[in-house]
Amino acid sequence: MxxxxxxxxxxxxxxxxxxxxxxxxxxxxxxxxxxxEDVCTPDALSKxxxxxxxxxxxxxxxxxLAKPNAAHAALAKLERHWKxxxxxxxxxxxxNVDDLHERAGSxxxxxxxxxxxxxxxxDCGGRTPWQLPMGEFERCGFCKRGxxxxxxxxxxxxxxxxxxxHEALMACDLFLAVGTSGxxxxxxxxxxxAKDAGAVAHQFNTELADGSHRFDTCHVGEAGEMLPKFVDExxxxxxxGWNLTPxxxxxxxxxxxxxGAHTTFYCSGMVEYxxxxxxxxxxxxxxxxRLYDQIIKPTQPEWGEPGIYAPNVLSAAIDxxxxxxxxxxxGRGFGHRDRLEKLKEVWNDRRT
Length: 352
Ligand code: BJW
Prior knowledge:
single chain; alpha/beta; 6-stranded parallel β-sheet; 13 helices; binds ligand BJW
């Protein structure tokens, strides 16, 4: 049906970080000195069954205290809206083994790496809901033969429902990756499949994660802050750029004016990013830019001054003024953190 847009969302440990659950990599990424790559393997289960069970028993127990956060809620809201308005298919694929998406109200959900609250029979493959600590040699209630293990996809094992995920990736128009480092295969490849299928891809992470250059837009910050705004803009509940106050708009214009537009090419790029961000900008026939009622003329960079690209200017201005624009403004050029830092220095020098 014309106008339909299919959404696939991939989430990782970062989306549950604001609910108090630890991520795997980076700060605090070790558990009792063990890397996840050492605990979460079939080999570890056969050689040190006690350790593996203890790890998952602790995680199951931590989960009892955790509650879904604003990012989980935003994805559930997006799914509800997409279904009720018949806007297209919506699939949420999580690498997380917690149940915070379900508790927030998500339905069309795949746990590709398994679930903490499920036990898997090593013999018959039967699954049993499981809430409590798991004994090392607990018998399966179905076949009465095999032992139960946590229903978790270990390294070297095939993640769940890959065929269904692959089909959805091939049909996807909008791909969102939230709170995942992109360090683990095959989820790390999803953005490439989605892009090959023609989707627009957004990344939400507190830093530029692996493979961020593959995304059209990288939103850097906490998922619980950024996703609700992004979703409200996407479903039309708020206009794009709605959270910009008049004072922030004024500060923003001043910033752009002070930095100067560098080429006519720069201007058209700027205008595109500004209008995407919900700002009133227009490219004029002489190559200058109108931003609200100010005219900003292109100027040439001085010798030694860093080259300025439209998305970089916008994101550096956002940084400098703490602007809260959440969508449509950061492009592939955003990966150049040091360039942004340098730009800020240049601008700060000019101000003083
Ligand atoms: C925020 C935030 C906030 C923080 N807001 N963001 C060599 C090269 C390439 C691949 C391989 C290789 N050797 C082996 C492989 C394959 C292997 C693999 O990828 N290994 C790598 C480690 C190298 N993969 C596998 O073995 C997989 N199976 C497989 O490949 O089968 C073959 C096959 C598949 C398909 C087709 C054909 C063949 C199985 C992988 C199983 C992963 N299991 C784990 C543990 C189980 C679950 C559990 O115990 O919880 O899954 S490992 C662990 O990593 C867990 C996670 O789901 C997974 C991904 O981690 P995630 O979610 O990205 O978390 P982090 O911590 O890495 O990142 C968090 C991010 O959030 C960070 O970026 C933060 O910045 C950010 N963040 N706060 C937004 N508030």
